[in-house]
């Protein structure tokens, strides 16, 4: 039983690493994940890797096609709408628990400054990753590991959405200042203002993503 528990913990750890790399944009939507290469990369047995794949499949982040292999998912427009619906529920709920002195705010401030620097040098893929980390830090204001772990799944899928559309300035540039404004409201304890800013942010972001999807399809 102890050996079995250890194997499960290892697979969960590998799944967590792959999930983090998805959020960071290390894997592309539709990319095939070679079982042999991944097992060698993580220095694990194929059985442990297959269990990690099973976890990620249950989370909707990868898909197994018989006789073809395992692939990173490519979320569609319906997925985008649902992801933003989930974001709205989680992130608006988090605001009720926010306090001006929470340590997560310091992390959010660092991420805003890093995003400003990345935008100045035109590294929009990095801006996208930092934006993900900003909103992850924001959800940690609730001090709920369960909520944070579920929001990580949302972020991983969103990163795959952006991966299909290209990490350009139109998708990411407007949200550098939006994040800074949201942070300022939270630091000042202006929860009602933060709620309004977040609502506008999510609506703008969803429209931008769906419009880009539409352009890609018509192109």
CATH architecture of the largest domain: Up-down Bundle
CATH topology descriptor of the largest domain: Four Helix Bundle (Hemerythrin (Met), subunit A)
What summary fits the major beta sheet? 3 strands, antiparallel
Total number of beta strands: 3
CATH level 1 name of the largest domain? Mainly Alpha
Count of distinct structural domains:
2
**The CATH fourth-level homologous superfamily of the largest domain:** GntR ligand-binding domain-like
**Rg, alpha carbons:** 18 Å
The strands making up the biggest β-sheet line up spatially as 1-3-2
Helix content: over 70%
Class per helix and strand makeup: mainly alpha
Topology summary:
Layout: H1 2-23, E1 32-33, H2 35-42, H3 46-58, E2 62-65, E3 69-72, H4 77-95, H5 104-120, H6 124-139, H7 145-165, H8 169-172, H9 174-187, H10 191-218
Antiparallel strand pairs: 1-3, 2-3
Helix pairs in contact: 1-3, 1-7, 2-3, 4-7, 4-10, 5-6, 5-9, 6-7, 9-10
